[in-house]
Design goal:
Number of helices: 3
Bound molecules: zinc ion
Length: 273
């Protein structure tokens, strides 16, 4: 089996991030995955794995910010234009999700509720591993994971309610599979990385600050073959990575059809002949 992918590997840091599991709950906890063994010296230990939720949403938000900065009208986050009470929810510079033909750059990259996204955002699970040296059979990112116990005080300063929030801290990486994107869509995505600032809950209190440090753009060739070993079959996978280069990242602007240029007052632009 041989497969070729185009990937963007992004390296980031957070001092403290709370990628919440659900939107409404008293105790916000991170999404717990399974438990795996790891080896330190000749000893075997176990560790819990957690998933970094919200990376795709973080990226989509960054792309929306870039489009707004360049006055390009793109899909909003929802098909709804107003709430039951008549409150308008589509901000100026956006159209309701999916209501663009030909599709805007956000629809081409992220899809809609009905159409699949052209990219996948992937991240190896994170784990809190006490040992400096360790080996695992599956890929894991070592970060610091802990819980913060917080107290809500009354107006007069009396503690009235406890709550617990989980967080992680440290360097982490994630990967965007951009195999299905054109070069100019990839350039748009690359520039959007400049707009990534936060992830998860507590932004207003200073939590979830994300710093994008660097990224690699690469062609990854994956080959898998079956090996027979001591009477059983084993799948052996090999990856060969070649760095790819794209010049003049900002040139994606020249490839955007002129009709998608938004207007100052946020009205739907007129289709140019
Ligand atoms: Zn759109």
């Amino acid at each position: 089996m041989r497969k070729t992918k185009k990937l963007m590997m992004i390296h980031a840091y957070t001092p403290i991030a709370k990628p919440i599991n659900t939107s409404v709950q008293k105790n916000s906890t991170m999404l717990l995955l399974g438990q795996i063994p790891y080896e330190n010296g000749s000893k075997i230990f176990t560790t819990k794995l957690y998933y970094i939720k919200g990376l795709r949403g973080m990226l989509r938000h960054a792309c929306m910010s870039l489009a707004q900065d360049c006055s390009i009208e793109v899909c909003h986050t929802s098909e709804k234009t107003e709430l039951k009470d008549g409150t308008k929810v589509t901000p100026s510079g956006f159209h309701p999700l999916g209501e663009c033909e030909p599709p805007c750059i956000l629809k081409r990259i992220f899809g809609t509720f009905r159409e699949e996204s052209s990219i996948s955002v992937l991240s190896d699970p994170i784990a809190s591993i006490k040992h400096k040296e360790f080996t695992t059979e599956v890929p894991v990112q070592k970060v610091h994971i802990a819980s913060e116990y917080r107290i809500a005080k009354s107006f007069t300063g009396i503690p009235i309610q406890d709550f617990k929030e989980s967080y992680f801290s440290g360097y982490f990486s994630f990967c965007i599979d951009v195999t299905e994107l054109t070069d100019y869509e990839i350039k748009f995505l690359m520039e959007s990385l400049l707009y990534i600032e936060t992830l998860g809950a507590g932004k207003r209190s200073g939590y979830g600050r994300i710093k994008i440090i660097s990224f690699e753009f690469q062609k990854v060739e994956i080959t898998r073959k079956i090996d027979r070993e001591n009477g059983s079959y084993k799948v052996v996978e090999n990856e060969s990575i070649t760095p790819l280069e794209l010049d003049d990242i900002e040139s994606w602007r020249d490839s955007i059809p002129s009709w998608t240029q938004g207007t100052q007052d946020g009205m739907l632009p007129v289709l140019n002949e």
